[in-house]
Amino acid sequence: MNPLTLTVVAMPSSPKSIAGSIAGKELAPLPTLLPHYLALSYAALIIYASLHPLTGWRDPGISPFYFLDAAWPRYWTGFDLAINALAYLPLGFLLALTLRRLPGRWIPAVAALMLGALLSFCVESLQTWLPTRVASNLDLACNTLGTGIGALLSIWHGRRFFIRIALLQRHLLTPFPHSDFGLVLIGLWLLTQLSPETILFGAGDMRHMLEITPAVPYAAHSFFALETGIIVCNTIAIGLTVRALLADQSSPYLAVAVFFVVALSIRTLAAAVLVNPLNAFAWLTPGATLGLSVGGVILSLIMLMPASIRIALAGLALMAGTVLVNVTPPNPYSAAALVTWRQGHFLNFNGLTRLTASFWPFLALPYLTLLGRRIESNQG
Fold first, then answer.
1. What are phi and psi of 101, to 5 degrees?
2. CA nearest 271: which of 197, 351, 352, 360?
3. Among its keywords, does the record have Transmembrane (predicted)?
4. What span, in angstroms and rounded, lies between the C-alpha atoms of 83 and 343?
5. Mean pLDDT for each consecutive 10-residue tract of the chain (380 residues)?
């Protein structure tokens, strides 16, 4: 896969000069794979969300394409139509940008439209075999419309948008290969914070997928200790991962602090919107308070160490946090939150965030290993 070549300015010294450089059009080529990574990740998320819960497959005895000439659905709302269109809008935007190397101005948009429509057609056809899903030609039309709108926006504004992103990358991030993938990992981790049922920062829980019963029965004191340990380990792991992506000339402590403020804000907003405004700060348990405090102090000290040691400790903390989250008994609050959540329109979104949270450590650990080897080779 060839990297997308965006035309950007020579490296400015500050974000303010970035905007000025773009306005002045001091342009130089810069390759980036970020649109490719984002497009693939977003397509995978759409597939999972569309086919969740991926159980109960059966043959209904009808063609999987019956929905194409079916009558107008009896039950539909404007909200559902808007969600189906908006869900595919980012996909169209990213696909058109990824395919920008195709000749002509409009061919990338047309190709993106066709790919988005094909993806929607495939998942709608597969929904025929899922008892909890209903294939719909109206959904297909809305998905295609959203893809088309996104593709048009990409043709008009996508290049300039990613020029700005690429310049910020060069200003804020360490210039090493695969930093684009690191940004995608960080974005996926932030996505997991939209799930109010999981322990704060908890990731890697595979028990619901493997149908494994909790190893430790619930007790207040043991849950407090395990919750604290999970938050400490993951605060260290994600904080060091963010630090590894930051350029040395940036302000790493400020950037990491801002990152955690954003993550906690997402968590709070998700609980307020998806569950109940009264539960907005339900994540702020005694274990979370202690875990954030202890984890923050340890993280601050580790950030003073050499890069190779930071990466190694990030991997160890990530593995420790994953082990702890898999032996922790269910959180009573999470069970209540899930009941409330499943009563709304967000059942598929719940499955999406849980899947992302389950697999995130297993994606991040190989990346940290690759990053550590890169640092060692540079030092050698």
1. -75, -10
2. 197
3. yes
4. 17
5. 43 43 41 79 86 82 85 76 90 90 88 95 92 87 94 85 73 72 90 83 85 75 92 96 82 92 92 77 90 96 93 96 90 58 54 84 93 77
User: Rounded to an integer, what distance in angstroms lies between the CA atom of residue 295 and that of residue 27?
Assistant: 43
Amino acid at the residue 296: G
Q: 289 is written with which tokens?
A: 């308070």
291/78 Cα distance (integer angstroms): 43
Quote the tokens at residue 106: 């409009």
Does one domain contain both 154 and 184? no
CB 56 within 8 A of CB 121: no
pTM for this model (two decimals):
0.74
Contact predicate 56/131, CB 8 Å: yes
Our count of domains for the chain comes to: 2
In sequence order, the β-bridge partners of residue 173 are 246
At 298, the amino acid letter reads I
- Using alpha carbons only, give the angle 358, 359, 365 rounded to the nearest 5 degrees: 125
Domain range for 264: 179-379
